[in-house]
Specification:
Keywords: Hydrolase. By secondary structure, this protein is of the alpha/beta class. About 25% of the residues lie in helices and about 25% in strands. The protein has helices spanning about 55-65, 150-165, 180-190, 200-210, 225-230, 265-270, 285-295, 305-315, and strands at about 10, 15, 20-25, 30-35, 50, 70, 80, 85-90, 100-105, 110, 135-140, 170-175, 195-200, 220, 235, 255-260, 275, 300-305, 320-325.
């Protein structure tokens, strides 16, 4: 019997699970929302009920003051929604608390991934391949030119530049949720045990990660340090502070940026980045296509990024796919 999946409907403001009268990552307030992770283009305040992992709910409370109506769901836990729909949260490997949402109804399975990556990350559980009928995938780096290098190579570049200039510091711009904590954790994994200095805007999120058991080592605030304290050190800041007046207090900073977009040289030049670090919390082109092959859905729905190339790949491989026209999705400072 043909399947039309009329019970799940992509609409401009999000994905509507019709029998349950719930929305996934809606871009405006709704009575009942299932949220994949805490980035602002997927999570927001104002919902009546917000269902997410405990980590994502803590992040949303910190960023958007969304404590009321928060309903925690652990990885692997299933909840029954209205209309005979069951939802299960599965690790997405994107940032702390990020989840794919498996929806089951009338014998059909739909996986909404939110954002995801396939590389190991010491700050969150790895992505789990979940077979389904419809697979909703992001396409942030959905072009063949995007192949992310091993993160160990990027850490070696950073530490090598630091060792070559002991009288300066390396100032790393990194997104406040996920990227900053991953860079710090990867530096620790690479053997860097020195104190790492933080812009004040990163402190609360780093402390929240530590509350959930992520070891980030010794962190100090720039506001309490002298230039001599920070010579030969790594300093972390939001991307917006890289060339800000704030950075003048640092000892001749070597500006770096941790982002998958650093693969594009023009982006590095636009930000006056001296040391581009190609570090992404999203899947690259090869990982996107490999994931589709491993999940092997009847149909792929593509959103959040470079949809045309991934659509074309599906056509060439005789796979059914469509692009979704959802609003409110942004690149982030990945």
């Amino acid at each position: 019997m043909a399947r039309d999946f009329a019970w799940i409907r992509p609409e401009p403001w999000g994905i509507h699970v019709v029998p349950a009268d719930t929305w996934i990552d809606p871009a405006r307030p709704v009575p009942h929302a299932l949220v994949t992770h805490g980035h602002a283009d997927h999570a927001r305040g104002g919902h009546g009920v917000t269902v997410a992992t405990p980590e994502t709910l803590a992040i949303m409370d910190l960023r958007y003051n969304t404590r009321e109506g928060a309903t925690p769901v652990a990885y692997g836990e299933s909840i029954d929604l209205k209309g005979g729909v069951r939802a299960t949260y599965v690790p997405a490997g994107h940032v702390l608390g990020s989840a794919q949402i498996l929806l089951e109804h009338a014998g059909e399975r739909v996986v909404v991934t939110g954002d995801y990556k396939r590389r190991p990350d010491p700050t969150c559980p790895p992505f789990e391949v979940t077979p389904c009928d419809i697979f909703v995938t992001e396409a942030t780096f959905g072009l063949p030119l995007f192949t992310h290098p091993p993160i160990a190579d990027e850490m070696a570049k950073l530490l090598g530049r630091l060792a070559a200039h002991p009288d300066r510091c390396v100032l790393v711009g990194a997104y406040a949720l996920g990227k900053a904590q991953r860079v710090i954790a990867e530096l620790r994994a690479a053997g860097h045990r020195e104190p790492i200095y933080l812009h004040g805007a990163l402190e609360r999120m780093c402390r929240l990660y530590e509350e959930f058991g992520v070891d980030l080592g010794e962190l100090r605030l720039v506001s309490g340090a002298t230039k001599d304290d920070m010579r030969g050190r790594v300093v972390m800041c939001p991307p917006s502070a890289l060339n800000d007046r704030w950075s003048r207090r640092l000892p001749e900073p070597i500006t770096a940026m941790a982002s998958g977009w650093m693969r594009v040289r023009q982006r590095a030049r636009q930000r006056n980045v001296e040391l581009p670090l190609v570090i992404s919390d999203h899947a690259d082109w090869g990982e996107l296509t490999r994931t589709v092959e491993e999940v092997d859905p009847r149909e792929t729905w593509i959103t959040h990024g470079r949809e045309e190339a991934l659509l074309r790949w599906h056509q060439l491989h005789q796979r059914k796919a469509r692009a979704l026209a959802l609003v409110g999705y942004e690149d982030e400072d990945d």
